């Protein structure tokens, strides 16, 4: 699930919205009212069925027969980004007065079947999708067309001598299975964590200057 991020400043907010994935793969938009010293109350709930999500994919790929996974990646200012079957990126606009969201884009991302199984974490930041592999390789995609924009190889960078943490890399090399990561809002820094709880921070500006 994701709480909606509202970026409009100077506006008083009396209710909050939560976008969740149901047990059958449906999307549920729940709006709550929260006042000081009062219980939180549910104001409304909208639902977008898994069948509708699957129909959207079938229009682009007739071989798609079932919906295996649904993951909400972001929810900002009425618009959400959802990952279907670890391969399809769908953007929906939830209008205030509408009972169903409006699709704004749908595309497949360029991942091999082996990469899809190796992907351990996804995140969306600044119209960009980041996909982390267990090996420490990160793929970067545009969320509107699914195009591959770049890749980031964390172990190779840490072992290259350009990173400022040789000691960290000696620990990293013995436990190279990554599990999650996060990217800063301005796309300047990525932090990844291994299954052994070792955190690796990379200055992305420095990384791409070094790569070029």
TrEMBL record:
It comes from the Eukaryota. This is Spatacsin. It comes from Characodon lateralis. The lineage of its organism: Eukaryota, Metazoa, Chordata, Craniata, Vertebrata.
